[in-house]
Each structure stands twice: as structure tokens, then as C-alpha cells.
Amino acid sequence: MKKNNITNKFRDDRAVSPVIGEILMVAVVVILAAVIAAYMFGMAPMGVAPQASIRGSVEQINNHNCIRLEHQGGEEIPLTGASIRVIVNGTAIEDFPGGKLTAGESCYIWMEDGVYHLSEDKPVSPNYPLPETGKTATVKIVDVASEQLIADIQVQG
């Protein structure tokens, strides 16, 4: 009788199922908390900036240098202040034409009355050379949503 009692104790596994269930529930709660924390603290993957090849060159208009940015291929770039930030020699451009810059198209950066401008059309009245002859201008195009650099261009005047 003692022998049967001992073997019956080893066959009694009713308590194993609730313990495993509780461990699984704790694991699910921990994983769920980690996902929510990652989302709340901004650790979730950010958007990706448009990938494009942009070439910068100098073009003379009305005896003043202007910067011509040519989209040579890749994804289109929206020309709005909500989508991109264009920085020329450390100063952000505030004036955006809207629309999009697609492969084969160009846009222009020029200075008028001390303010940088960006346009899809050639400027009519630039009154300051950009860049000045013999100097270099730096143009950076940054995607606002992802804060990733789209282009970093050096243009020699």
C-alpha cells in the first residue's frame, strides 16, 4: 500500500497547468509593456527620408550666381516647408514653392534683399550672388518627418 501511495504522488500533476498558465500571462504582460513603452518614448522606427540623387551647380542669371539643384534620379522630393528643410550656409529657407521635385527637374536657390528663396522657376531678380565668386555655398536638404539628410551639396562659385 505504501508503494502505491508513492507512485500516485508522482503521477499527480494537476498543479502544473495553473503554474505554466500564470508564467505565460506574466510573459505576455511584460512583452506588451515593452511594446507600449517603445511607442511612448519614440523608440519605434521612424519614417525613411526620400532617397534621391541631387546635383548642385551654379547658374548665372542677370549677372548674379544662383544655385541650381537638379534631381538626377530616385524618389520625388516634396517642396513644402512641412516636408523638407533646406539650409543654405547655415540659414534655413522659409519660402517654399509647393509641388514636387522629380527626376529630370530642377529648382533654384537665390538671394534677394538678404533672404534666400527656393523656386521651381528661374529667378527673375536675384540681386546678390549665391555663392559669391570664388566661395563655396553649402546646401543641406533634410526630411522633416525622419530628420534624415536627403542631400548635402557643396557648390563652388
Secondary-structure blueprint:
Elements: H1 2-11, H2 16-40, E1 52-61, E2 64-74, E3 77-78, E4 84-88, E5 91-92, E6 100-101, E7 106-112, E8 115-119, E9 136-143, E10 149-156
Antiparallel strand pairs: 1-2, 2-7, 3-6, 4-5, 4-9, 7-8, 9-10
Give average pLDDT, whole number: 83
Low-confidence stretches: none
Number of helices: 2
Query: Could you give the distance between the termini?
Result: 103 Å
Number of strands: 10
At CATH level 3, the topology of the largest domain is Immunoglobulin-like
What's the alpha carbon Rg, rounded to whole Å? 31 Å
Strand content: 35-45%
Summed up, the domain count is: 2
| Global shape | rod-shaped
Query: How do the SSEs run, as a string of H and E?
Result: HHEEEEEEEEEE
**Which second-level CATH architecture of the largest domain applies?**
Sandwich
Please list the strands of the largest sheet in the order they lie side by side. Answer: 1-2-7-8
Biggest sheet record:
4 strands, antiparallel
Range of helix content: 10-25%
Which class of secondary structure composition applies to the elements? alpha+beta
